[in-house]
Write a structure and sequence with these properties.
alpha/beta; single chain; 5-stranded parallel beta sheet
Length: 207
């Protein structure tokens, strides 16, 4: 019952509001602690990754971002941030590979969903480009295949995952992996958003 105060014997509105306040505070504190843990674990590597991305953009490289489900939506947000940051920030070439429904469905139907990103990188990727995969599990076949393809093509391969990184952590040629140490999909995605914004800010600063 989402609204127990509406029913006989419910806990009452005041109790409900207190529960919501406590739950909100607990989640906010958890988010802060998780971001602090990510910074402690990956702060130097985030800076190194951003420097590498800046070098890639400086040399004419492009960013290809991809994921599944919410990861696909987050990849679109990352690509939009780099491409159209607003204000005085420098626009940088970026593309979300889940954005073309015709391409994604054609590859899925003709070959299989596991190639929807690898085939696009095979067609568009060049040495010096950047491949950014977003996943909460780190176990998606199509993301692993795409990161392998990126490595074969001399691209900078960057993975974002949860927990200990899943199979993504075992992918050969992966240049940077940021595994958010949490079992909550929501907290992982929130921390990944912070990592992506940090990468963007540091890349802009380096350029």
């Amino acid at each position: 019952m989402l609204y127990p105060f509406l029913y006989a014997g419910g806990s009452g509105l005041d109790t409900l509001l207190e529960d919501v306040r406590r739950s909100t505070a607990d989640k906010a504190n958890e988010i802060v602690r998780l971001r602090e843990a990510v910074l402690a674990e990956y702060g130097d590597e985030i800076a190194a990754c951003a420097a590498r991305m800046a070098d890639a953009f400086r040399s004419g490289g492009r960013l290809f971002a991809f994921g599944n489900g919410t990861g696909a939506a987050d990849a679109q947000a990352v690509a939009a941030l780099f491409l159209d940051p607003g204000g005085s920030a420098r626009p940088l070439p970026a593309l979300a590979l889940a954005g073309d429904a015709a391409v994604v469905t054609a590859l899925s139907d003709d070959i299989g969903f596991e190639v929807v990103y690898a085939r696009q990188l095979a067609a568009f990727g060049r040495p010096g480009d950047i491949a950014l995969a977003l996943s909460t599990s780190g176990d998606s076949d199509n993301l692993i295949a795409a990161l392998r393809e990126a490595s074969r093509r001399g691209m900078t391969a960057v993975g974002l995952a949860g927990r200990t990184g899943g199979r993504m952590a075992e992918t050969p040629g992966l240049n940077h992996l940021f595994a958010v140490p949490s079992s909550s999909v929501h907290r992982i995605q929130e921390a990944q958003t912070t990592i992506c914004h940090a990468l963007w800010e540091l890349t802009q600063e380096a350029l």
